């Protein structure tokens, strides 16, 4: 993939991408809602801006992974806006008890994952978006114990309308609020 670092070796680039994106995330400060597609694009741009010229820009081609076909380019903004309007109407999930919050997070995460608005970096930027959402609800969050395969399996299950694995991830990752 063409990148700003002019690295052609996939394994070298993967390592550089991991390191730079992890450092970039550390510099991104929490912001309160509203959260919307524009906000998500901004997060993506901040995470991957040192790597790709197109960071923060929505993809211009249809994509899929395995049997999972993501939202058509022509529908990204329309479908994402519907989801974010629902999230706004649900007051960005503020005030929910932890079990209800976990259920709603899994539903919204699954719905937004199908949008997959970027060529690369959808998972990392979406997780950061959801970290902000969770923090705004008064909870801490750490996805460190969740492996790549667990995320992938949960996202595939969510694509097939089974959000239980995503709920399990949020159950393990959302920290109880400080009293």
Automatic annotation (TrEMBL):
The keyword Isomerase does not apply. Its EC number is 2.7.7.108. This is protein adenylyltransferase. One of its GO terms (molecular function) is AMPylase activity. Keywords: ATP-binding, Nucleotide-binding, Nucleotidyltransferase, Transferase. GO terms for biological process: regulation of cell division. SUPFAM superfamilies: Fic-like (SSF140931). It catalyses: L-tyrosyl-[protein] + ATP = O-(5'-adenylyl)-L-tyrosyl-[protein] + diphosphate; L-threonyl-[protein] + ATP = 3-O-(5'-adenylyl)-L-threonyl-[protein] + diphosphate. It holds the Pfam family Fic. Residues 35-172 form the Fido domain. PANTHER family: PROTEIN ADENYLYLTRANSFERASE FIC-RELATED. It comes from the Bacteria. The lineage of its organism: Bacteria, Pseudomonadati, Pseudomonadota, Gammaproteobacteria, Enterobacterales. The keyword ATP-binding applies. It comes from Brenneria izbisi. InterPro entries: Fido, Fido-like_dom_sf.
């Amino acid at each position: 993939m063409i990148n700003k670092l002019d690295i052609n070796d996939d394994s070298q680039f993967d390592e550089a991408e991991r390191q730079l994106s992890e450092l970039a995330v550390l510099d991104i400060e929490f912001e309160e809602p509203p959260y919307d597609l524009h906000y998500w694009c901004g997060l993506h741009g901040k995470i991957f801006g040192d790597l790709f010229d197109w960071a923060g820009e929505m993809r211009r081609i249809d994509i899929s992974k395995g049997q999972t076909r993501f939202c058509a380019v022509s529908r990204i903004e329309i479908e994402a806006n519907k989801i974010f309007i629902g999230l706004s109407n649900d007051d960005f999930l503020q005030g929910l008890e932890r079990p209800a919050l976990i259920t709603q997070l899994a539903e919204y995460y699954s719905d937004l994952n199908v949008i997959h608005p970027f060529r690369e970096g959808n998972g990392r930027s979406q997780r950061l978006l959801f970290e902000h959402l969770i923090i705004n609800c008064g909870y801490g969050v750490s996805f460190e114990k969740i492996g790549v395969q667990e995320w992938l399996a949960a996202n595939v299950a969510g694509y097939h309308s089974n959000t239980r694995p995503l709920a399990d991830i949020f159950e393990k990752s959302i920290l109880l609020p400080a009293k």
